Amino acid sequence: MSSDNDVSSVTRRHLFGTWRKQRDWSPLNVVGGEGCYLHDASGKDILDLSSMLVCVNLGYSNRAIVESVTEQIQRLPYIIPSMTTQVKAEVAKLLKEVLPDNLEKFFFSTSGTDAIEAALKIARLKTGRPKIVSRYFSYHGSTMGSIAASGEVRRWFVEHFGKAGDVVFAPPPYCYRCPFKLRYPECGIACVEVIDHIVKNEFGVAGILFEPVVGTNGVIVPPPGYMERLQEIARENDVLLIDDEVMTGWFRTGKWFAVEHWGVKPDILVTAKGLTSSYVPLALTAVSKEIAEHFEENFFAHGHTYEAHPVALAAAKAAIQEYRRLRIWENVERVGRYLERRLRELGEKHRSVGEVRGIGMFWAIDLTRDRRTREPFSTYQDKYEGRPVMAERLAAEALKRGVYVLGYVNNLVIAPPLIATEREIDRGIEVLDEVLKVSDQEARS
Q: Are 269 and 257 contacting, i.e. CB atoms less than 8 angstroms apart?
């Protein structure tokens, strides 16, 4: 290719841009990256304030991961899933050390979507029941089973074709815009008690699927007592607790996995993204000893060509070792506190910021047209009907200023690589301070 324009135009002409109408797609040509920065074809450095899709946890060009992948691909680039090799056993041992200690057996796939599909199938096979309880404002993947369990607008585009399995939705723990118009703690955590009501009144519930901290739909952190009660509901009703840690795993919230904040031990845990810092596609579905034992004598009806791909496992092995070597949890604690302070200062300054919320290095700015009524700038209906949404508009303005931030419907997701410094946080906040003036102009005081 002779120019940046060639790369972008060929991409635009022959490839699909995801989750969008194609006519207005103009992809940025990125040629490299290092640390927390991307480098585009024009020579511009772009600070990644969202780890792309909340996935490049260890930043760009981590030498240990690159070398591990290179060594493995030279030694053995592929092996059929029914065979094994050293890196399979090594990663299995590492996972047993870092996952919740009740999780015993693992299935690998290539994306969070695939891993959720495996989890849903495993839950249904284990229990013999068809239904899954999920929550609104959740996103669990793009394939027919995982999108059917997603409680947001991306499901709307395909739902009229029919659902792949029975799913019942409950409200999320979204205190800022509580659907019951209640306040915590006087509410008695009504949003979780609704789940108990659903499970008791629906026939054939196999499991409860949840993000411990809601991801792109607003980084919604549950209030104290919510997660503990959710686990009680699952146990009391003999349904499986299915934990989607695709975004929240691997120290994004300050722990190996977010459920550790509340002492919750899921029956099934799904993760991806940070498992390899997204250097190579890899995802994981981990299950309890009880579930694993079920398939000793019952058919495990799942699999695919790239299950436990050795090159991807080599990336995972190096990434897990890097989390430990870098003591990444210490940086998340220190820089996460700094990020919280700077974001809250920003929220106080801009009238278009309704709420700043998050945990660790996983935060969101909830955009609000009117702080008194908490009216959002944009809704799922706006996204579905193709109207411009404020979060994407602000994200585009930030990119012009050299900062990438993920904007989705009505939220800006702030989730920098876990290696980020206070100086890089300051740079990101400086740009957000400028772009929020755009939404301030359209906000009502």
A: yes
Which domains are seen in the chain, by residue range? Answer: 4-58+327-440 (3.90.1150.10), 64-325 (3.40.640.10)
Write down how long the chain is: 445
Buried b (16+ CB within 10 A) or exposed e, 139-163: bbbbeebbbbbbbbbbbeeeeeeee
Whether residue 128 is predicted with pLDDT greater than 60 in this model: the reply is yes
Please determine, for residue 207, whether its predicted confidence score (pLDDT) is greater than 50.
yes
Residue 330: phi, psi to the nearest 5? -70, -40
Contacts with 410 (C-beta within 8 Å, 6 or more apart), sequence order: 218, 366, 367, 376, 377, 378, 379, 389, 390, 391
Alpha-carbon distance of 381 to 144, in angstroms, equals 21
Amino acid identity of residue 195, one-letter, is: I
Q: What is the pTM of this model?
A: 0.96
Report d(CA 131, CA 423) in Å as an integer.
Answer: 48
In angstroms, the CA 25 to CA 13 distance is 10
pLDDT tens digits, 133-150? 999 999 999 999 999 999
Q: Where in 238-352 does DSSP place strands (E)?
A: 240-244, 268-271, 283-288
Tokens 């919230």 identify what position?
253
